[in-house]
Structure formats: structure tokens, C-alpha cells
Design brief:
The protein is mainly β. It is built from no helices and 9 strands. The protein has a single domain, classed as Sandwich (Immunoglobulin-like).
């Protein structure tokens, strides 16, 4: 039960870090979402926002939101939270907060 994170770009503006990353999900969606600590993106302090793009596998469209309180990515289709495999689903993350740039290279 893990999501793989690849940081594509990070930008520093003042005391804020903006990170663009891709998150690839696996075959077992955990109940109430994937754990997703801001530190995975290099964010070490307060998080201003986390925006997730939608994704699609075959003909099913998925949407996602970040649960700030529990630090999880929650994925839904329609009005219901998903269950089961999300293998092959990739979503783009755009996040801003306090932190330091990280690199996957």
C-alpha cells in the first residue's frame, strides 16, 4: 500500500516552495486514502495548498483531494471513495508550502 512520488520541478519564491510531482498509485487502495506526508515533496513546515489533477484508467475517471488533517490522498469516482486496485493511475500534484527543494536524481 504505497504511492510512488517523482518530483518533476520545484521552485522557491520567498520562504515558500512550490513542487510539481507525479504520484503513481498501486494495486491496493488503503481505506480512507494513501498516506502522503508533505515531506515526500520536501515540504517541512506549513502547507498552503495541495492540488491533485484527475486521472483515468480505461474508461473510469478518478478525482482526488488531499486530506490536510490526516495527511492522505483520497481518491473518488463519482461520489464514492474507491476501493481495490488503482494500478496504472498517475496524478499530477501541485503543492506550495514551507520547505526545501528535493530531487529524485
Amino acid at each position: 500500500m504505497a504511492a510512488t512520488v517523482v518530483v518533476n520541478h520545484s521552485f522557491v519564491t520567498g520562504d515558500r516552495l512550490r513542487v510539481i510531482a507525479d504520484v503513481t498509485f498501486d494495486s491496493s487502495y488503503p481505506s480512507l486514502g494513501y498516506p502522503f506526508a508533505p515531506s515526500l515533496l520536501g515540504l517541512t513546515g506549513e502547507v498552503d495548498y495541495v492540488n491533485l489533477s484527475g486521472g483515468m484508467i480505461t474508461t473510469v475517471v478518478y478525482d482526488a483531494f488531499y486530506d490536510y488533517v490526516n495527511q492522505k490522498i483520497r481518491i473518488v469516482t463519482g461520489v464514492a471513495e474507491v476501493s481495490g486496485s488503482l494500478a496504472g493511475l498517475v496524478m499530477r500534484v501541485d503543492a506550495v508550502g514551507k520547505g526545501f527543494p528535493v530531487s529524485n536524481v
